Amino acid sequence: MRIDKFLKVSRLVKRRTVAKEMADQGRIKVNGRVVKSSYDVKIDDLIEIGYGARTIKAKVLNIRETTKKAEASELYELVD
């Protein structure tokens, strides 16, 4: 699954277009490397998302095409 779609499905980013723009601006890293929006997410990837001054790190636990809002947090685990 593409990273822009994963971020939308997991609700780490509200819209896929926003996730795509963030990736194109170099604000998304996977395993320490800047990635494009077409990057293929795998289980155990460590995603870093830069929101201005703060950064969120999440480890991918599961990949699903769709998910309910209550189950979205099961797709990742926040890391310090």
Automatic annotation (TrEMBL):
Organism domain of life: Bacteria
SUPFAM superfamilies: Alpha-L RNA-binding motif (SSF55174)
Keyword Iron-sulfur: no
HAMAP family tied to this protein: RqcP
GO biological process, one term: rescue of stalled ribosome
Family listed: Belongs to the RqcP family.
Function: Key component of the ribosome quality control system (RQC), a ribosome-associated complex that mediates the extraction of incompletely synthesized nascent chains from stalled ribosomes and their subsequent degradation. RqcH recruits Ala-charged tRNA, and with RqcP directs the elongation of stalled nascent chains on 50S ribosomal subunits, leading to non-templated C-terminal alanine extensions (Ala tail). The Ala tail promotes nascent chain degradation. RqcP is associated with the translocation-like movement of the peptidyl-tRNA from the A-site into the P-site.
Record-annotated RNA-binding S4 domain positions: 1-61
PROSITE patterns: S4
Subunit structure: Associates with stalled 50S ribosomal subunits. Binds to RqcH, 23S rRNA and the P-site tRNA. Does not require RqcH for association with 50S subunits.
Native species: Lactobacillus kefiranofaciens
Protein's name in the database: RQC P-site tRNA stabilizing factor
Gene Ontology MF terms in the entry: ribosomal large subunit binding; rRNA binding; tRNA binding
InterPro entries xref list: RqcP, S4_RNA-bd, S4_RNA-bd_sf
Keywords linked to the UniProt accession: Protein biosynthesis, RNA-binding, rRNA-binding, Stress response, tRNA-binding
